[in-house]
Amino acid sequence: MELAVLILILIINTIIALAYLLWGLLRRNDREKDRGHRAKYFMLSFVMLVCPLIGPFFLAFSHLLYLLFSRREVDMADVSFSRERVKTYTHADIDRDINITPMQETLLISDVRRRRKMLLDVMKKDVRRSLGAIAIALDNPDSETSHYAASVIMDALSEFRGTVQNMYMKFKEDPENYDLGSLILEYIDEVLRQNLLSGDERKAYTYTVDEIGDSLFLHYPSKMEGEQYRRLIEALVEIRDYPLAEKWAGRALKHRDYQLDTYIGCLKLYFTYNDRDAFFRCLDRLKKSGIVVNKEIMELIRMFGGTV
Questions:
Q1: DSSP secondary structure code for residue 126 in this structure
Q2: Euclidean distance between CA atoms 281 and 266, whole angstroms
Q3: 49 with 42: CB under 8 angstroms?
């Protein structure tokens, strides 16, 4: 008798599992919704087959709960569809941040373990703007410290070269893309100013920014800012290509003679080139413009005055 009941249960269970499988495969309603998900019917039918009675009851109970709770109305009071950007603030790690010191002071710490830990804390931050400071650690007597610094700098420069190459290729395809060109100029200048590149490589990247700058000036002469002119002048002065630097100085004085960065770049050029007449002509233009000078220009005037 018990065997007959068991066989009956298995037959009914098999019928239910096969019926569920056929219903899932052949039903037409919500066909688009279930596209790609029919494998679930095979899986659930298999569960019913290997778990007689318990499997169908469990799945039926789960589906009942889904129907009961899924039909509740959603409270939309706290839901916002605003397109305004929301800033999320993350609490600072006070214990770590208060211990971050300038690289020069970090390298003077005598405790080797503490020095290495503080160096790693510095490197965990955005190191792209502080590669020049990290490079100081290359000459540290502690081999582990110098190894940390070398690995960071090598990784950063490798990323820099790959990024510049990709950006430059995209710019060549669309030389009128002012935003991309400006981004490349800023990105390369950030590394050039940290003096990490060798002579030939530095020249190559400097002439790259000169080329991109020419393209931007050709298409958007009124868009280029004094800061961009200054960066171009300073980069070319650094490799002692004064004729090209003079080219950008002339353009800057023509199109951005009302911005302080223009005069800083030009005065640095004339000071380095030791062109006293051009220096004081530029200084006279600055005085007539009414622009308030800063400490950097005052220092240039003092130094030039001392050499004349």
A1: -
A2: 11
A3: no
Task: Say how far apart CA 10 and CA 17 lie, in whole Å.
Answer: 10
For residues 196 and 135, give the distance between their C-alpha atoms in angstroms, rounded to a whole number: 8
Evaluated on CA atoms 42, 46, 52, 55, the torsion sign reads: negative
Residue 127: DSSP 8-state: G
Query: pLDDT tens-digit profile of 209-239?
Result: 999 999 999 999 889 999 999 999 999 999 9
pLDDT in tens, 88-130: 444 444 444 434 445 555 555 556 666 666 666 665 555 566 6
Element (H, E) at 295: helix 295-307
Collect contacts of 62-65 with beta carbons under 8 A, ≥24 apart: none
How high is the pLDDT of residue 267?
93
| SS3 category, 83 | coil
**Polymer length of the chain:** 308
Hunting for tokens 């050039």 — which residue is that? Answer: 192
d(CA 286, CA 185): 26
Distance CA 59, CA 40 (A): 12
Q: What is the pLDDT of residue 6?
A: 74
What's the N-to-C CA distance of the chain in angstroms?
A: 120
Low-confidence stretches of the chain (pLDDT < 50) are 28, 31-33, 74, 76, 78-83, 86, 88-101, 306-308
Cα–Cα dist 226/231, whole Å? 9
The two three-digit tokens of residue 122, written as one number:
């510095």
Spans of all domains in the chain:
174-307
What is the assigned CATH class of domain 174-307? Answer: mainly alpha
